[in-house]
Prior knowledge:
This protein is of the alpha+beta class and 202 residues long. Helices cover 12% and strands 22% of the residues. The chain contains 2 helices and 12 strands; from the N terminus they run H-H-E-E-E-E-E-E-E-E-E-E-E-E. The strands form 4 sheets. Strands 3, 10, 11 and 12 form a 4-stranded antiparallel beta sheet that branches. Strands 2-1-5 form a 3-stranded mixed beta sheet, with no helix packed on it. A 3-stranded antiparallel beta sheet has the order 6-7-8, with no helix packed on it. The longest helix has 20 residues.
Amino acid sequence: MRLCSYRRAGSDHRFVGLGVVALAIPLLLAACGSTPSASSSPTPTKSSSVYGTPSSSGAAASGVTIRTANVSGLGTVLVNAKGRTLYTLSSESGGQLTCTVANGCTQAWFEMDLPAAATAATAGTGAQTSMLGTETGATGTLVTYNGWPLYGFSGDSTTNQAKGEGLKSFGGTWYVLRSTGQLVKQATSASSPSSSSGGYGY
């Protein structure tokens, strides 16, 4: 079945008809003659590519899950849905962020941001719902736990790792957290990299 066509104007209305046709052709081409090109996929956000949370093209975003897992040398600490260790920066108490895009921090320390359609994080096994919250972060709506902003570390390439524990950078020291909201303060390292160390595996 032919979906798109137009009738040529009669000779007795040649000039009027040509004008109508001239106006109609661009509309016909837009409706029938052109196929929308597939838009290139937007650059993945830290939330979708690093943390595995739903992107805008997927089904309704289900949010972010915070749970606990045992990490060697640290005990039971907070992790994300994929089991990757989560951290907080000691200088960010009281809602003042020192990990920003401008200083390069977010290239190595990835915010635990909510997807656009989500309004709150979910407490998984071991985590407490009452401890979860949000605040405006450097790259999105940042999930907090007991008031502490949560981040993943590019230096951790798999589960059961916490290479960021005790690293000093961006105005403070990075620590993992217990389900009680307490910071786990082990022996501190001198400094952390100011840029990603190549592990975008969250």
